[in-house]
Amino acid sequence: MIRTFNCHFSQILLITDNKIAVGNFNGNTISIISLVSSLVDNSFEIKGNFIQSFSFRKEKFLIVVIDFGFCLTDIEGNILKTIPSSAVDIIYAVLLNDKIYFSQFRKDSIFCCDMKGNVVNEYRDERLKYPVGVTCSETGVLFITGFKSNNIITLSTTGNELKELYSNSNLCRARAISYNSGKQQLLVSTEDGKISLFDIS
């Protein structure tokens, strides 16, 4: 089945089996769209600057707001918490066990901050260059794309250990990454539009 939408999305995220969340370029609105009807079920706006990206776990959105930090909302867009951050160049972030993990590509690092925005840990590895995309499994494993190192790195949040999962020329300029826990698969997109699917079972 193919669904066509007459919009240009900056991000698209599957949040249930039949609903997606989308964001518009240079905007601060997130829309929930039914894959059954192709209609917008709900939209909400984040006050302030543009939305850089968002992730969704356990019925909550973690939204990266440019020049501010993070905003945590429920699926209806009700703000649960705002978390200022002085970090810059954040593209993707994920909430896991009451900690926020995000990449800072200019520092070749993954950072972890608490729910007040205080950085509590930094992770670096010589095999990870220009980290961009960040996602996680239900078991507490982070998956990070290396934009310039052409790879996927895993980070165990319990053991604080970075490992290279995949390194491949098809991952050149890898950006967004998404994890399907049901199928134990990673979906990775690159800047030039290539999409790769990896089994990690």
Total number of strands: 19
Order of helices and strands: EEEEEEEEEEEEEEEEEEE
Helix content: under 10%
Largest sheet: 4 strands, antiparallel
The largest sheet has its strands arranged as 1-2-3-4
| The named CATH superfamily of the largest domain | YVTN repeat-like/Quinoprotein amine dehydrogenase
Structural class label: mainly beta
Q: List low-pLDDT spans.
A: none
InterPro entries: 6-blade_b-propeller_TolB-like
How would you describe this protein?
By secondary structure, the chain is mainly β. It folds into 2 domains: 84 residues, Thrombin, subunit H; 116 residues, Methylamine Dehydrogenase, Chain H (7 Propeller), CATH 2.130.10. Helices cover 0% and strands 58% of the residues. It contains no helices and 19 strands. A hairpin with a 2-residue loop joins strand 1 and strand 2. It starts with 8 loop residues before the first strand and ends with a strand. InterPro entries: 6-blade_b-propeller_TolB-like (IPR011042).
Q: Which features characterize this protein?
A:
single chain; 201 residues; mainly beta; Thrombin, subunit H; Methylamine Dehydrogenase, Chain H; 2 domains; four-stranded antiparallel beta sheet; 19 strands; 0% helix; globular
Summarize the helices and strands and which ones pair or pack.
Blueprint: E1 9-16, E2 19-24, E3 29-34, E4 40-45, E5 51-57, E6 60-65, E7 69-74, E8 79-84, E9 90-96, E10 99-104, E11 109-113, E12 119-123, E13 131-136, E14 141-146, E15 151-156, E16 161-167, E17 174-180, E18 185-190, E19 195-199
Antiparallel strand pairs: 1-2, 2-3, 3-4, 5-6, 6-7, 7-8, 9-10, 10-11, 11-12, 13-14, 14-15, 15-16, 17-18, 18-19
